[in-house]
Amino acid sequence: MRKMLFRLVRTAAALLLPLVLLSACSERTSSSDGLPALRETYFKIVPSDWMGLISDDTPISRLTIPGTHDTGTYTSHAIDGAGFVKTQNMSISEQLKAGVRFLDIRGRLYRDSIVIHHEDFYLHLNLTDVINDCRAFLKDHPSETILMSLKDEYDHYLPSLTYYHAFLRYHDRDPDLWYLGNSIPLLGDVRGKIVLLRRFGLDPNGEGFIGIWLHMSDTPQVFNRDPRQTLYTEDLYSPGGYFDQGVDEKKRAIRNNITAAQRDSSPDSLYLSFTSATQWKSLSSPLDFANKINPWLMNTLVTNHGPMGIVPMDFVHEKLIFFLINSNFRNSGGYWIVNQEGGINTYGDAGYHGHGVGGDNEAVDLGIKPSGHGYWILSRNGGIHTYGDAGYHGHGVGHDNAAVSLGVTPSGNGYWILSRNGGIHTYGDAKYHGHGVGHDGDAVALGVTPSGKGYWILSRNGGIHTYGDAGYHGHGVGGDNEAVDLGVTPSGNGYWILSRNGGIHTYGDARYHGHGVGGNGQAVSIGVTPSGQGYWILSQNGKISYYGDARFYGEHDGSATAVALGVRK
User: What is the CATH number of domain 334-568?
Assistant: First the structure.
């Protein structure tokens, strides 16, 4: 089996870590479902200390805990076991500093020591090395806890002790470092400690029950009968079919277990969802699966909020770990992306209510109902498509040429449609205040004042045309190429102009927080944060760039052309 050749692939882990802007200190409270509720709107999540933001009375089962599968394999080479041994690139210390809080340690009993293995592969570590890394980390970060799964791995070699008694020798060197209880603890009771999740046998003479028992089974297992506490595990480590079918089967298994975790409000339920897999039939290694599963996990699941339980992964990186950490914290943010075909992708707290433009031609813009529970999709021919609680008030651009932008009234009971020639078409409680772009050429975007009693029209050359109570604060995109979108400050006393190359041009009280779309192609839309202290830039390929206090919730995979971004207020 190990004679099979496998291609060598290295993963790139140098990804930028998003940080949320800081208020000086955060008061912790606990919500009724055990999730942390932070009073400050903006706070800083430091991956090495993220548990410090969470209330002491939160059961560890009510968290999303990033983990690593076969944690110690970072010492192995890519060619070991034809590529089937290595599952991590980051060392244990690096994992912990990046926010990992579950370690999957596989220890072989060798004489009377526990040495770290992956099946029969020795990883040149022993349990002392692992404990020392954990101790050093917890000393520097006392707000944190580490869940350590310790598995009896591979054949024993000439021991005089049982595995149980060999472990106790390690424990007894620093007993205060460990939590050996068999029930789910509160976070406050285990800060600065290692929580033992036991995957080895107890003392044959019945001396004592230690640790939370992990039994790797798809059948729920009661591990503590008083109170009754249950483990729900997903560990489909070798899915069926060939590679593509196996990836799909693995995704379904992960999604089902994580969805169950988010729907289960009981503190007595512990969920464990391994995202790792291999497949000998297709010669698909842990890295092959990780290259498919990790991006999907980042874009599909971690944009949701609520406790996912423990999520051990292969080839983790800082960005993926951060998204899992971020799901522990409530927020009132998110966004929708609409593509040219009328498809809707939702991220963060943005809900899905439907999609499509029917028989109309391409979608061009998206309007969000102020309630956050619905939206309008505008098509090029002026068609309006309503979803959720967004009401229909009319459509069309008359004899004008193509529709280009949609503005929603503050009440949500009406909207304006802007046509390319600067024409304004009003529906519902939207009032007419004027139209036109003079000699500036094509109109490209509409911005509505907070009162709803005026609007700005942006032309392709960066010109600004004001109507009603919309104030003039400046115009232009300098040496950048064409203007594509307009973002209005919450006060209505300023605006940002976005240019096609990702340039940001600020006017009035709009502040500059950064610009650019990196290698992500052409910019198409800007979304402003509720505070006005940041913004998102959407690229045509669905990628998101974020600045100021804008948080990243996910991005489109580029399979369809993105045209507009809508922000959940």
Answer: 2.130.10.10
